[in-house]
Design goal:
By secondary structure, the chain is of the alpha/beta class. It is built from 18 helices and 14 strands. Helix 9 packs across helix 11. The chain binds uridine-5'-diphosphate-xylopyranose (UDX).
């Protein structure tokens, strides 16, 4: 199958490489010439485990190429739209500019029988509107909506072996279903379930899934707040709750909360869309989910300030972690970077480290000091804050670390450390929702 992928960011670049790896003929398009040059050279412009390998082998196979020229999509049968829908400036709603311009740019190059497949996370109702735009163009192409559920850090795995496929299609559009079945033949043969539905349901599956995950995290973080005033231990609470199969243990890790390019902006955009639809009250709880989440960042800052005896100015704070989660270099809406920035704003001498996210962090916040070296980061620190649970940090030997810092106090913003071992090594240990 000949495929084009419009937008080569965290989603599109992985999708393009994975589709070529699966045997399709793929062209990836992006307006960013620098990104296209790097991808064409086999160098991903961001960190994603497994991507360099599939990118090189797909390029070597001759089935994958990248271009800034949208005209190169001509001849492809399926066109995936994988551009971003960030939070709109000054509003909670999603910014649809990139999706709208991608579809507009595609129109002159579409042929009868082509299928434009939306992958971006969009406000419900967008697909029906875009289907109208494509219809009116007279190109003879049709639209389908195929939301993407990949997790950063596991994007290659999630794309090659998704846990489900959702196709939103116009009523009775068997052609789009057949084309998508061909695109995903490998996953389908391996047993991946396919849900064929209408546009609105397909769009809603994505935002509902992210809203559910965000709610689950904020639920356990709300329990952490209660644990903090009762002396209970939220990690044991989560273990005990998780043994109930109906609840499950995953996404019940209390800590500094969720961030990234999806969860925070998706719940806000969902709230904004529901309000537009006159059903704001149905998802009003997502505002509380957002508030609980943001309070956890403040809690980490407050614990650190308290640990410093309320005198923050010129105290050295070592921040372990900058990415919004491990195995990623993404710092979009990262709780870790936010904590570092807030502490710097309070006058602390912040030094932060991260295995992958230093460059992205420095570009946004040059006022913070960065080091790639854990020992250098810890040396002479008056307080240590762990905010991204990279294995490198979770595995730090507390006895070794105690020998480096000025004051052995640690705030474990991800509840990842063995509190007893750190205390035994002489540390004052503070978890979130843990005694
Ligand atoms: C998410 C969805 O999981 C994915 O299906 C969707 O396609 C995109 O959004 P991603 O943003 O890559 O994926 O990250 P995810 O693994 O979901 O983590 C989101 C945030 O929640 C991270 O900041 C993580 O640290 C935090 N988190 C996750 C918790 O705080 N506690 C948990 O128990 C789990």
């Amino acid at each position: 199958m000949k495929i084009s992928v419009i937008g080569c960011g965290y989603l599109g670049a992985v999708h393009a490489a994975a589709m070529a790896k699966l045997g399709h003929d793929v062209v990836g398009i992006d307006v960013d010439a620098g990104k296209i040059a790097q991808l064409s050279d086999g160098r991903p412009p961001f960190f994603e485990p497994g991507l360099p390998e599939i990118l090189s082998s797909a390029l070597a196979s001759g089935r994958l190429r990248f271009s800034t020229d949208i005209a190169e999509v001509a001849g492809s049968r399926v066109h995936f739209v994988a551009v971003g829908t960030p939070q709109r400036d000054g509003s909670n709603a999603a910014d649809m500019t990139y999706v709208d311009s991608a579809v507009d740019a595609l129109l002159p190059h579409l042929a009868p029988g082509d299928i434009v497949v939306g992958k971006s996370t969009v406000p419900v109702g967008s697909a029906a509107r875009l289907a109208g735009v494509i219809d009116e163009s007279g190109s003879g192409a049709v639209l389908a909506w195929n939301p993407e559920f990949l997790r950063e850090g596991f994007a290659v795995l999630d794309t090659m072996s998704p846990d489900r496929l959702v196709y939103g299609v116009a009523s009775g559009d068997d052609t789009a279903v057949a084309a998508l079945n061909e695109v995903y033949a490998t996953a389908i043969a391996a047993g991946t379930p396919v849900v064929v539905t209408d546009f609105a349901t397909a769009e809603l599956v994505k935002v509902a899934a992210n809203a559910f995950l965000a709610t689950k995290i904020s639920f356990i973080n709300a329990m952490a707040e209660i644990a903090e005033v009762t002396g209970a231990d939220v990690t044991q609470l989560a273990d005990a709750l998780g043994f109930d199969n109906r609840i499950g243990r995953r996404f019940l890790n209390a800590g500094v909360g969720f961030g990234g390019g999806c969860l925070p902006k998706d719940i806000r955009a969902f709230t904004a869309r529901a309000e537009e639809l006159g059903r704001g009250e149905s998802v009003a709880f997502l505002k509380e989910v957002d508030q609980i989440n943001l309070r956890r960042r403040q809690r980490v800052v407050d614990l650190t300030v308290h640990a410093l005896g309320s005198v923050v100015n010129e105290k050295k704070v070592a921040v372990l972690g900058l990415a919004f989660k491990p195995h990623s270099d993404d710092v979009r809406d990262s709780p870790a970077l936010d904590v570092a920035v807030q502490l710097r704003g309070l006058g602390a001498n912040v030094i932060a480290t991260d295995p992958q996210a230093i460059e992205n962090s420095r570009a946004r916040h040059p006022q913070i000091a960065y080091s790639a070296d854990i020992a250098e980061t810890l040396r002479d620190a008056d307080a240590v804050v762990l905010v991204t649970e990279w294995p490198e940090f979770a595995g730090i030997d507390p006895v070794w670390a105690a020998g480096l810092v000025r004051n052995p106090t640690i705030i474990d913003g991800r509840n990842k450390l063995d509190a007893a071992a750190w205390r035994a090594a002489g540390w004052t240990y503070h978890g979130l929702g843990r005694p």
